[in-house]
Each structure stands twice: as structure tokens, then as C-alpha cells.
User: What shape does this take?
Amino acid sequence: MRRTRSFRPHIAGLRISTLFRLYRIRLRDHPIQELLAGSGIAVGVALVFGVLVANSSLTASAGEAVHSVIGSAQLQLAARSTDGFSEDLANQAGTLKGVKDAAYLLRVNATVVGPAGRQSIQLVGVTAGIVGFGGSATQDLGAGESLLTGGIGLPSSVGAAIGAKPGASVTVLAAGQAHRVAVRGVLNSGVIGALANSHVAVTLLPTAQTLVGEPHRVTQVLIRAEPGVQQQVALELRRLAAGRADVEPADNELQLLNATAKPTNQSTTLFAGISIMVGCLLAFTAMLLTVPERRRLIAELGTEGYTSRQLRTMLAFEASVLGLLASLAGVALGDVLAHTVLHQVPIYLAVAFPVGTNQVIHVSTVLIAVGFGVLATLVACLAPVIDLRSGGPADAVLHKPGEPGQNVSKKTTAKLGALGAGIVVAVTIAVLLDTALTVVGGILLALAAVCLIPLIFNAVTAGLKPISKRIRGSMLSVAVIELDATTTRSVALAAVAALAIYGSVAIGGARSDLTRGLNATFAEYLGTTNIWVTTTGNDLTTNSFSPEQTLTKIAREPGVVSARAYQGGLLDIGLRRMWVIARSPANRAIVPAGQLIEGNARGASALLQRSGWIAVSSVFAAEHHLSVGHTFDLPTPSGLVPLRVAAITTNIGWPPGVVILNTNDYRRYWQTPNLAAIEVNLKPGMTPLVGKHEVQQAIAPRQGLRVQTTHEREAQFDNNAREGLQSLADIATLLIIAAALALALALSTSIWQRRARLAALKAQGYDRWQLWRSLLIESAIVLSIGCADGAILGVYGHALANRWLKLTTGFPAPFSLGGLNVLLTLGLVAGIALAVVALPGYSAATVPAQASFQE
Assistant: This one.
């Protein structure tokens, strides 16, 4: 038998040079094994890093965008609707005592159409005073108003998307009107900072007012106070606003964004937490595959005179070097994932906030990802360290069944099984007592899946032994013997499969339920009419336009029964940017019946047809301790208005929540006739497509309006929902890819390590086809154990995630087992694994019998 190279310790301790020499020899003797283990660690770290970066970049990039505009501004006077307030009020605010600098803004959602396509944007009209705040996005605009006079400046990301060039003209669709506008500049980060990667276009205030048809209107006043008088200025602003506008810190947009993105971030955090745990455990199991060889090495070096302290030092050094190098490679791969697969801004946030697409990487994120990789590598070396107890080295090589170093004792198996079961019970109790603990619980269930593997493995192999004796010539008996002989390796492989299935089933199942719930919600919300008329690019029915004669023209069409006004927008209440839905009293289903949590559908709609009633979403109601019948003072552009709660609903797909009322109240309290949409009901027998054509003919002069059938608008909302949940889909996909790669690497490592064992079997008379079948049977058994374990706990994690989504975020997420998706996931992972093991397994099975004498 070939022995490991002998090293004689000449010193009490090990110098760094000696440690490097020992590790170089190990790399020379086992290069493929270390490379594959390092690759597995890198895959796990890449998953951790990519998810962490994607999860933190959205709000971080938005913070950069907001600060690049507000600069040194301290306060803002903000309108409570997209219609804004009078410029006279802005002038009064700007001339208050103690105000050093003031700038007026008009913000409106719009669509810009160029030669290569169209893009939804936030159009921001600014005054020259914005330059005084020194924001990176506005400081270069002070070179002269000629930069933007009579036109707009597009961020470079938008300019590239629509093919716009400086000096050319584009079409801006805003407030239901279309205008040709000159592009004064396609502005890169050197001119407008972080806004270059956003969907925010800049123009001068008069131009913006013309484009939206609102002369002398603004939506925001930014203010910087004289030193020491900021509180007095804020007080004077509140007196001036008289309860009709909000006075907030200049960066209040970020607080609102955090609150709006919180439910989605919480959802992503839950799934990211599961993925991070899976990533760490993937790294751990990759390293675990090298443990048997390291245990044998420790045993041999111990018999040659190395002390326990020296061997611990050597193990820690090798694990640290491998973990660090592999983790750095994983960070590089994770960075690629963060900039490609996970690089997307949800439409629903882009509609309401100036979010950008910058990927923000903090040093702490790199350190966390690298730390996870190194820690997982060090923990995986605990088994060789345990062997350093008295008498351990000889036992590791001589007295344990199977391949040396592969045994997992019954005591250890029982302890791990008890720990796994205890985790499941503890998680169940914890989430019932406190829903917020679901995130931690989801992470711990991944650990439980791994802990239960040895117990399940022993039970399955024990059950297969009597069966294998009855089936002659099937190679099942050889496969079972080989599984017993390679317990540590087989358990590690099963753990990788279990982690892949657990994460994919838990994340994918919850996402599917959430998507299905949102689709049903939107179908109910939009299904009150046949045709929708909205502004072009309006993705949430919140952009307003002047009704003019549009309602009357549509109602006169021969195929139209009625044309109803729909109003609404976004309203800031505390730290929530609520979605306000105002429907005509003639609408019999003002509240979607399927979205009710408290209240009676028919009774609630009847109440909402009267004045003074609203419906609010559950999370908002819980925050303000509201129930049906309670009164709430709603902040509106006309001041605080006491309204009674007729019903409590889900959030209808908008994370901060919704407020539902009738159009009569909205028109009165928002003091505007402007519409957000027109609902058109067609006569019986009139097809939606023909009715759509009639409505298009009626509003033909208004190119800024869009006509959609209910089915088309449902498809648009469903697409927005899918994009909003894309990060969850990406995480689930990455998890499958990472696990498949880790499993492929682990199987390749396992096959490489078993060449001598296979050669010994061939020397006993088995041919290559028999050995190949044995390998396939072993792989199928190991995969079945891991997949069954992961699927069961994955379904449980899916159920806990759904419960958490409904109770914490207010999203509609009805639970379904999703058996087909579970089976598809199982088939995908098992198919990849068996495909990987088939060819390398056949190659390994061709090893000559003489190779057994080289070990």
C-alpha cells in the first residue's frame, strides 16, 4: 500500500514556511480533490455574496440618487397629490424668515419615446435654485439655463435605451398629452451623478409645467435654513401649509422608500437568509468531502511523532488558506451574478420613487461573504480535530469499518437526528409565538435538513440490506456495501441534494403562491369593467390627466353602456406611501370581495358609495389600531378629514397598503376633477376588441392616453407583479444552479476519491458495467435520501413563509402544495446529478484492477 509522504517534526512548533511546505505537498498529491472542494466553497460564497449585494443595492442606490438631487437641503414642503399646489404657496415658503436657499420642483410620471423604443421615467422640473444645494446631479447645471432651456436632459441609461441623442427630438407622454421635446443632453454620471443610472429625466420647471398642462404648479419645495433656525423654519412651514401639505426632512423620500420596499425586502430577506444558509452549508459539505483523506493524514502524521498542537495548527492553516482563496473566487463570481441575474429594479418602485440601478458593494458585505466561506471550511475540519484526542489517530485508520475516516458513529448520528428534530419543533413553537421569527426559522430549517440526513441514511441502508440479499445480480448489494463503506462522503452528497431541494421548494413555492394570489387580486380589481383608459406608461393607475370632454365622447359611442370616472394616486401617511383608489359610486363592487379581511363585501361597497367612508389594508389598520367602524383622520390636500372604516382588505399588491373611497369624496377632498383612468362598460354582444377600437376612435386626438381591454391590463399588472417578485425567482434559480454545480463538483470529487476502491472491486471479479451500475444505484439512493428530506422540510418552510407573508406584509398568498413544482424541482436536481455521475462514473469504472495495489 502506498503511504503518505513521511515528515519528521524537527521543532516543537510549525513555522509558516513549514506549513506552506506541508500544504504544497498535499496540493501536489491531491490537486483535484482540493480544487473541487475549493470550487464547492466558491459556489456557496457566490450565492451568499450575490444575494447580499442585490438585497442591499436597491435602497442604497436610491439613497445616492436622492442625495445627488437634494444636496445640502434640510427640509421640504411636499404636496399630497401629483396635482401639486400653487406656485404662490411655494414662493411664500421660499421667502420665509430664516430660509437661506429654496428650489421648486415638479415631479410627474411620464413616458419618453425615441427612435429605438420607449421608457417610463420620472420627469423632474427644477428651478435654478437647485444648484445652490450642491448636489452631484445638479451642480453642473449652473453653467447656464441654456443647457436645459426648452428641452430635457435624459440620463445616459434612458438615452441608450431609446436611442436618443443630444439635439434630436423625442416624444414625451405626460398627463394624457403628447409633446415633441428637444433632447438638450444625454447626461452621464460625470454631470448628474447617480441619476445617470436612474429613470429620472431633468428639465426646467416652466417646461415641465407646460408638458403636464399645469402652469404655476409645483409638487415640492426644497429648503436650506440659516444656521441654527431649522426648527423655527419647519414650524413656519407647517403654519403656512395649514395641514394641506407635508413638511418633512429633505431626504424623507428615503424613509418612504424603505417603508414601501420593506415587505418586499422582508420577503427577499427571508429567502435570502435561506439561500445564505444553504450557501454556507454547500461550502461546508464541499469541504466535508475532503475530511476522510485529512483524517487519514492526521492519523499517519500522529503515528510519526507530530503533536496534537502541531496537527491542529496545520489543519487550521490549510482550511484558512483554502477557505480564503475559494471565498475570494466566490466573491468575484457573486459580483457577476449581482450585476447580471439579480440586476433589476421592480416597476412598482420605479413608478413611485427615483430608484437607480447602481450596484452598491460595501466592504462589510465582502467580509461577511468571505467570513462565511472561511468559517464553513474551518467547521468542516472539526472531525479531524476530534480525532486528535487520545487514541484517536489509530482508531481513524485501523479500527473503523468501511474506508478509513469515513465512519459516522451511531452516537453522532443519534445526536444529529435529535438536534434536527429539536430544531423543527423549536422553529414551529417560535413562529407560532412570534411571526417575526419566521426568517430565523427558515434559516434553521436548512440546518435541520442537514442534521437529519445521517439518521435517514442509516435507516435506508439498513432497510435495503435484506432486500439486496433477495435480488441477485442487481448490484444493489454491492451498492449498499459501498454506501456503508463511504458514509461520510455519501451523507455529504445527500446533504447537498437536500439543501438544493429545501431552498428551491421553500422559495419557489412561496413565490408561486404569492404570484398566484396577486394575479387573482388584479383580476378582481380590474374586472369591474370591459375597457380601461389610462395615461400611457401608467403602471399603477395613479397618474392623473384632465378629463376635458373625454368621458362624454366615450359615453356617446354606440357600443358603450357607461363610462365611469376613476381617480386616485399616491398619498404619504407617516412613513407609508399609500395607494389611493377612488371609484365611482355607480360601481357596485368598489371593494374587491376576494380581498376582504374584515367586513362584508356587499355592505362595505354600499357604505363606500356614501360619503365619509373608506377601506384600508390590514397592515395599515393594525399599525393604527383600526377596525371596521372606527374613524381615522385622513391627511388630504384640503386638510385632515375624519373618515370611517367600512372594511379592511389585503394590500392589493401595493406593499405599503391601500385606501379605497368613492370619487365624490376624492374630488371634494383632493380638490381636483383630474382622472387617473376611465372605466368603460360595453353593451352586451360587443366584443372587447371592437369596443376598444370604438374608444380609441373617440379619444384619437389625445395621443397621451392608452386604451386597453381588461385582459390586456390584467396581463400588464401580472407582468409587473412578476417583475416585482423577480428577485425571489432569481434567488430560487441561483439556488438550483449553485446546488447543481455543488452537487456536480461533489459527485466528481467522490468518484475521483473512489478509484482505488473501484479497482479493488474489479480485482475481485466485477466488470466495468457492473461497477457502473453500482455507482448509478448508489447515486440514486443518495439522491433519493437527500431529495426526500429536502422536499418534506421545503414544503414545511413554504407553509411557514406563506403564513408570514400574509400576517406581516398583507400580501395575498394562499398556500398550495405545488406538487408539480416540487416534482419538477426533484427531477431537475436528480437529472443533473445522474447526468453528471453517468459519464465520469463509467470512466472511473474502467480503472484497471492493478490500480488497487498503488494505494
Summary: The first helix runs from residue 16 to 29. Residues 564 and 679 are 5 Å apart (CA to CA).
